[in-house]
Each structure stands twice: as C-alpha cells, then as structure tokens.
Amino acid sequence: MKRREFSLSAASAVAASALTLPVATPALAQARQFKEGKDFRRLDKPVAPDAPAGKVDVIEFFWYSCPHCNAFEPALDAWVKAAPKDLSVRRMPVAFNASFVPQQKLYYALEGMGKLEALHAKVFRAIHVEKQKLAKDDEIFAWVAQQGVDAAKFKEIYTSFSVSNQVRRASQLQDAYGVEGVPSMGVAGKFYTDGTMAGSMQNVLQVVEHLATVARKG
C-alpha cells in the first residue's frame, strides 16, 4: 500500500484475492539478475545498521491496517524462520501521518512486555478478519485486555518515554530509507525494495537475499 493510499474501502476485496506467497530461497534468488534502479535502489545516504556484529540488518516496514501487509505476513514469517542465521530481521511499524502512531505504540508496547511473538499475528487477524477497530488508544487498550495481558502494565509501557523514543526512531528510519509504501524492506542500511519495484512480494524476498549477499561482501 502506497503512502497516499490510506483508504481501506477495498481492503476486503484485496485480502480475499491475495494469494499465499511462496517462500523465497537462495536458489530462486540466484536464478534471476536483480538490477539497481529497477528491483531495488541504493540509499543516497547510508543508514547506520542496528544489528549485532557480523549480522546483516534487514527491516520490514509495515502497518497493521494495511491489507497487503496482512497478506504478506505469513510468507514473511516463514521466510524469517528459514533465513540464513547471519540475517538480523526486524519489523518496523510506519507512520505516514499521526493516525498511524497508536499502532506503532501497540507494536512497541507488546515488544516491551515480551508479548509480541504471541500477539503480533493476532493483531492482524483482529483487524482484517474480525474487523475490529484498533486505531485509537482506547480501542487498543480494550483489545489488549481481552488477550489476557496486564492492561495496567501495558498502558504504562504504551505511554512511556521509551516507547515514544522507539516511535521517533522508527519514523527517522522510515524517512532515511525513503519508504514510499508498505510492505517494503530495507537491507544493511544501504538498500530499499518493495513490491512495486521488484514486481511482487515474493520477488522482494529474493531481492533481499541478493542484497544480503552483496552486503556480506562489503
């Protein structure tokens, strides 16, 4: 979903027509030559990677309310589990305007409580399958409480300075990578790709594997 396409009026149709995406493999990535300026772009100003030494920093930029991100999530999750061990893959919630911020805070508060692995996919399901509204603070607090999470503790973390800093950092990285839509991916603080550039999200995963190889070579 491009940053200007915020209307979700067609979300149901998109989700219904979305196909399960095959998981990319190194063999697939090697079968095609990827071109800078077409399948991916190099950042004009590199970003300092936030990954352990010896790891390749990989970021998925996403938005919980985006139907394309919802459709991509199962393929991404499977790919992450099978990815080379030297890839440091993380998700980063975007904010194209102020209305996105509550869902950014939702992501980071769940992460801060150690609940992200258990509830990340459930957030997508609540929005896209159960059609629940999780766009405002009170809606998020009510839903989290229904998941058996300590509501008071969640609210404390959600409104904390730490989460505010994480939201600010996410927005900085979003701008640094020049994110134009979601889902999209950044690699090694040097490269950016998305479905429009690569042709499909399946191709995006292949491009990421290719760029990780480039990054390993320095």
Determine the strand fraction and express it as a percent band: 5-15%
Encode the helix/strand succession as letters. HHEEHEHHHHHEEHH
Return Rg in Å. Answer: 17 Å
Mean pLDDT: 88
What structural category characterises the helix and strand content? alpha+beta
Largest sheet: number of strands, sense, barrel closure: 5 strands, mixed
Number of helices: 10
User: What is the helix fraction of residues, given as a range?
Assistant: 40-55%
Oligomer: single chain
Principal-axes geometry comes out as: globular
As laid out across the biggest beta sheet, the strand order is 1-5-4-2-3
* Poorly predicted residue ranges: 4-31
Number of strands: 5
What is the first-to-last residue Cα distance? Answer: 32 Å
Brief characterization of the structure:
The protein has 218 residues and is an alpha+beta fold. The protein has helices at 11-17, 26-30, 67-82, 101-112, 116-128, 137-146, 151-158, 161-177, 195-198, 201-216, and strands spanning 41-42, 56-62, 87-93, 184-187, 191-194. It has a five-stranded mixed sheet with strand order 1-5-4-2-3, with helices on both faces.
